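re: ur question from earlier - yeah i can do the single chain one, its not a big deal. heres the input i used so u can compare w yours
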Amino acid sequence: MNDLWELDLATEVYTQIELSENSVCPGARSGHTASIFNGKMYIFGGILELTKELNEMLCYSFETKSFVTIGSDTNEQNMLQSNLRAQEEGMSPGTKKNNILKK
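and the output i got, formated as tokens:
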């Protein structure tokens, strides 16, 4: 899945994060690494559909609620965007609803 959730440790309640309109929408992945530094989350790599190793760095800003791609070429990003659209059937209901509303 490619949905993003936030856990409030005080209330133990999860809330789905809505990306801003100007945000890159990263494709689904597993096996990635993520680190938080100075109000941003950096995500590197991962595996797409068990066969494609991703070699990209994403940066999520908690302030702007948006992702940007760091050091990736446009073709790879376009492939991830088209893969996202192709996999809408496997998305969580919240993510699918958000994609429909953005179209």
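The chain is about 20% helix and 30% strand. not sure if urs matches, ping me
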